[in-house]
Amino acid sequence: MSNRKGAFIVIEGTDGSGKGTQFEILAKRLAEVGHDVVQFDFPQYDLASSYFVKEYLNGKYGTANQVGPYTGSLFFSLDRYSAKDKIQQALDEGKVVLCNRFTGSNMAHQGTKFINSEERRGYFIWLDNLEFQMLGIPRPDRSIVLRVPAEVAQQLVDQKEARSYTDKKRDIHEADLAHLQKSVEVYDDLCSLFPKDFTRIDCVRSGKLMSVPQIHDVLWETIKPQLPKTNNKAGSITNASKEVPSAIDTNKVTYVTKNENGQYGITAEGEAFLKDAVTSSKGNVYAFTDKLSPVTIAAAMARLSRRADDMRITILDEFANAAGKDEKLLQRVITAYGDDSVQQLVGQHVVVEGASNLLTKKLEWGRLAAYLEQSTRYIYFDQKDIDGNYRYYVPNDLDTKTRATYVHFMDAIFDLYSSMVRELTSYVRKNSNVPKAEQDVAWQGATRAQACDAVRSVLPVATKSTVGIYASGQALESLIMHLLSDELPEAKEVGHQLLVDPV
Asked: What is the gyration radius of the CA atoms in the chain, in angstroms?
């Protein structure tokens, strides 16, 4: 952020806190002192990118509590992702990007769905990594939280004029006073946990709501240090969240038609597409070919709960023209951390090398996925690595003296294990009743397993092995959250690697 030419400022707060008013006043003042301002109003209700947000806020997917925090967050994240390039361009040009709500709003509203504070913090980390690292959305320089008690905020909501995204006086968040109260608490939590990112302004002092000019003065003094230098010429204001007419896609193929009764028909182009995409274009039972990626198939199957059509119609109507496009976004968002219905249909193979026995148990917690590991029951664990070390985990936070003591005793344990397992293998083989003519490779493996199984209790929990995991997106998400919230440093490290590295 230090190398930016421009500045990225966000106005946050619960619904009814006066964000919109301060957003407009601040933009005008910035322009008056010579800044070029690019405004973003999130969600961007005038743009197609907010479609799922509007459906969610109008209760089309159920109540706020029925929609999980991760699923709900994705609706808003996709909307912000659509503005990524515009925001970055404005910052590169030295302009001030001013947003009415951003990622902090998601954290506050969806964060109310967590009772456990550690789980909520894990969710904050998940969303932060998703947006600012995986999707590469620019991170705000400063998010200013306008704090207004929920009871006051709800009264101010009722004074708002009609809004484009809903025909109701209050959306599903605004109608729930308990939700608003919890949102205020979560915003307080954000300001406490991440003081470099979030700054709180108390708008009610001595029991009285401050005037609009008073709040603006405090806001102005708060953001001044973040602003770039100006040439003292008159600035400008551009609203980047308004609908811009798009060019017609002349390459789009018509795969389906729709009559006046809302019934779909398949065109000749659609029939040709299905011939290559499914094993049967007419029958009731069919599978998919490799024409469509597993991710696209999973996303199409997830639409089953929302469309009454033959699924082949859904594929032609919603996915055929998009085949091969935006694959990275689809992979990152829907596959890795997406809607529950999609997560159950797409899986991922993951390997964790050098996992201690203790970490292995945590990886296999709940048995939510399919696991394979190097078993102490069948493999000798006395082989040393290329550096001449036994396979055990050494914590990074040990001081020099403690580390030396730890390594000394671990080496002694592994020396003992090596001696015991080799001697016991020899003993088992010498006393075997199997005729020498039948003592083949299978016999050698069986006798080794007998010895390994008997001696494996000598191995410490620090013993390292490789763990293979095949997990659905849903199970992988649960595993990552579980590891990130664990007290074991090794577990936290692997959880972070699973989250950040492309899996």
From this structure: 29
- Phi and psi angles of residue 471, each rounded to the nearest 5 degrees, phi first: -130, 145
Residue 298's alpha-carbon distances to 12, 344, 346, 472, in angstroms, are 35, 9, 6, 11
DSSP codes, 114-163: -SSHHHHHHHHHHHHIIIIIIS-PPPPSEEEEEE--HHHHHHHHTTSPPB
For residue 180 the two structure tokens come to 């608003």
Using CA atoms, how far apart are residues 394 and 417, in angstroms rounded to an integer? 18
The C-alpha atoms of residue 106 and residue 454 are separated, in whole angstroms, by 53
pTM: 0.49
Q: Give the C-alpha separation, 41 to 98, whole Å.
A: 9
Query: What pLDDT score does 473 carry?
Result: 73
Q: What torsion, rounded to 10 degrees, do the Cα atoms 440, 444, 446, 450 define? A: 150
CA dist., res. 38 & res. 89, Å (int):
10
Tens-place pLDDT, residues 359-389: 888 888 766 677 777 777 788 888 887 788 9
Burial class of residue 246, CB neighbours in 10 A (0-12, 13-18, 19+): exposed
List the 464-472 sheet strands across, edge first.
347-356, 464-472, 370-373
Locate 252 and state its tokens. Answer: 């789009």
Domain architecture of the chain: domains with CATH: 7-239 (3.40.50.300), 256-343 (no CATH), 347-500 (3.30.1360.170)
Interatomic CA distance for residues 452 and 479, integer angstroms: 30
- Structure-token pair, residue 413: 């344990």
Residue for token pair 């005038």: 46
